[in-house]
Each structure stands twice: as C-alpha cells, then as structure tokens.
C-alpha cells in the first residue's frame, strides 16, 4: 500500500499540471514516481531539472543507468530498480547481464566498473570518501568534472530512492526486487 498518493493528470493544477503535460508529451505516460512527486511542483520540477542537466553531462546514458542501478540496489529501492532496468534495457539497449551486474557494482568495462565502485562507495560512506577513493576513480580515466558528475548522479538517485522508499510508490514497470544484502 502506498503511503503518498500519486496525483493524476486530471486532478493536477498549476505548475504540476504543466509538468505532467510535458512529461506525457515526451514519454506518452507520466510514471507513478513523477505523479507522486507532482504533489509538490517544486519537488517534481527540481527532479526534472536536475535529471535533464545531468543528461547533458559527459558520462553518457549507459553509465548513468548503471549507476542508478548500483545506487538503487544499495538503497533497496524496488521502484528504481524496476524503472532503471526497464529504461536500461528498452531505451539505452544495455544487455541483461550488464544490468544485473551493475546492481553489485560490476561491469565488463573496467572504466565503467570504477564508476560503479565509486558510486557504491559514496553511498556506503555517506559521501565521505577517502583520498584513495578519489585517486582510484581518477586513475580509471575520469576527469575532475566527470567525478563531480558521478557524485551528482548518486545524489539524484539517492533522492529518488529515498522518495520512492518513503512513498512506497506503486511500481509501473516490470518489477525488479532488491537483493537482500
């Protein structure tokens, strides 16, 4: 049972209605997470703007989706695991094995695996990474700007994980459950 109600497009007003109409136009639907965020247009608009800005960064959509899965697993967010597994497979064309491995911070590409390891380290250490952690990600070939983007992707995904875990958002994608750790 959800704890926060999803706002339906027909019931939305003002800025939330405008944002829903834009999302509907782009995606053909408004995912339940965004409907629930729409109860506060500030939350929804902040999420959309942050997500849009990061989408223009240097990491690329594959690495971004894999980071999202690593962070969602670390935070046991079934909604985000479900959404990013679907998006990763259907929209970004990531193979199923890579999607599964990302949840454990693994990848066949050492550079991507370094990003996933760093993302999981950020979550596990509440952002208080060591000099060695930062040197490892930079030695894997990431610039200072790219390291900043990894941190930002983790922050965005922590937001959505915490939001969905609080709301118990109804999953509107094929369901993927967090592995017990």
Descriptive notes:
The two termini are 24 Å apart. Helix 7 crosses helix 9. The protein folds into 2 domains: 9-55, no CATH class; 61-167, Up-down Bundle (AhpD-like). The chain has 181 residues and is mostly helical. It is 65% helix and 0% strand.
Features:
AhpD-like, mainly alpha, oxidoreductase, single chain, 181 residues, 2 domains, globular
Low-confidence stretches: none
Biggest sheet details:
none
CATH architecture of the largest domain: Up-down Bundle
Query: Can you say what the CATH homologous superfamily of the largest domain is?
Result: AhpD-like
Helix/sheet category: mainly alpha
Instruction: Could you tell me the CATH topology label of the largest domain.
Output: AhpD-like
What is the 3D shape? globular
First CA to last CA: what distance? Answer: 24 Å
CATH top level of the largest domain is: Mainly Alpha
Number of structurally distinct domains: 2
The count of β-strands is: 0
Series of secondary-structure elements, N-terminal to C-terminal: HHHHHHHHH
Into which percent range does the helicity of residues fall? 55-70%
Mean pLDDT: 97
Given the structure, what is the number of helices?
Answer: 9
Beta-strand content estimate: under 5%
Rg to the nearest angstrom?
16 Å
């Amino acid at each position: 049972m959800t704890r926060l109600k999803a706002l339906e497009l027909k019931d939305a007003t003002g800025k939330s209605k405008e944002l829903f109409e834009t999302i509907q136009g782009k995606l053909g639907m408004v995912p339940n997470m965004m409907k629930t965020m729409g109860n506060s247009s500030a939350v929804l608009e902040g999420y959309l703007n942050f997500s849009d800005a990061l989408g223009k960064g240097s990491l690329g959509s594959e690495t971004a989706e894999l980071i999202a899965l690593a962070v969602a697993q670390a935070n046991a967010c079934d909604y985000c695991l479900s959404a990013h597994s679907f998006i990763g497979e259907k929209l970004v064309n990531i193979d199923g094995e890579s999607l599964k491995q990302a949840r454990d911070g693994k990848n066949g590409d050492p550079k991507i695996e370094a990003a996933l390891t760093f993302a999981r380290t950020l979550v596990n250490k509440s952002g208080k990474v060591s000099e060695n952690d930062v040197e490892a990600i930079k030695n894997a070939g990431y610039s200072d700007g790219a390291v900043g983007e990894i941190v930002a992707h983790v922050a965005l995904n922590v937001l959505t994980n915490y939001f969905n875990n609080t709301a118990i958002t109804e999953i509107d994608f094929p369901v993927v459950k967090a592995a017990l750790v």
